[in-house]
Fold this sequence. Notes:
The complex is a heterodimer of chains A (109) and B (142).
Chain A: H1 4-7, H2 11-21, E1 24-25, H3 26-36, H4 45-57, E2 61-69, E3 72-79, H5 81-105
Antiparallel strand pairs in A: 1-3, 2-3
Chain B: H1 2-11, H2 19-41, H3 46-57, H4 61-66, H5 71-111, H6 119-141
Helix pairs in contact in B: 1-2, 2-3, 5-6
Amino acid sequence: MIRSDIIRGHLDSIILRLIMEKDRYGYEISKEISERTDQRFQIKEATLYAVFQRLEKKELIQSYYGSESKGGKRKYYRITTLGKAYFKETVEEWKEIKDIVDIFMEGFD
Amino acid sequence: MKKLAQHVNELFKEVPESEKKEMVMQEVLQNLEEKVWDLMEQGKEEEDAINKAIVDFGDIGDLKEELGVSEDSSATQARRNKLMNRKLNLGYSIWGSLLIIGLLVFINFYYSPGVIWFVYPTFAVLWWPLSMYYSWLRVKKG
């Protein structure tokens, strides 16, 4: 399991990426993260909702209520144009960070 | 599922009432319920599934912050309450000691006007508001 404090700074981008693929709701996102990482990283739901609040405040995502499901209406999130632009920027930034960190981390066993 | 609703209410009790809070609580509860159903479909007992969902949920410190409650503001509120309490104690001790001293003065001048003795018990009584004053001052200065 990955230490969550290391990945914390990238949670916004991870969630934006998943919402960019298609509109999703909270539990679906946390399940998707666990599945895609083969359970190596599991996001705490409390953290997930904090990220939703933050992204909505920054107008990077928008929420809407979907159709009725088991426990009531699900709240879905969709990415905004601003969100897409922000994500693109973070991808570029990540490549840069990766290159820099690789300089010091690669080639050491 | 009642346990889940109780847990969510407990988690959000410090967050000031607002429409946003209600919406987030509803969303959290709905997603937790879905997780419980999922876990039950995977073969877990309802009780175990609920406990797992609660444990997995994590600490809502960040979420509270996003909703406008910070650790700082609750500490400030606690300090303010304490200060208010000490102020009330100080006021009570001042009025109480004034009444006692007044009574002593009355008894002194009514029954034994030739001997001024009320000063001695007055010193003893004054310790009460004095200690309350320093107790209030200590909290005020933090």
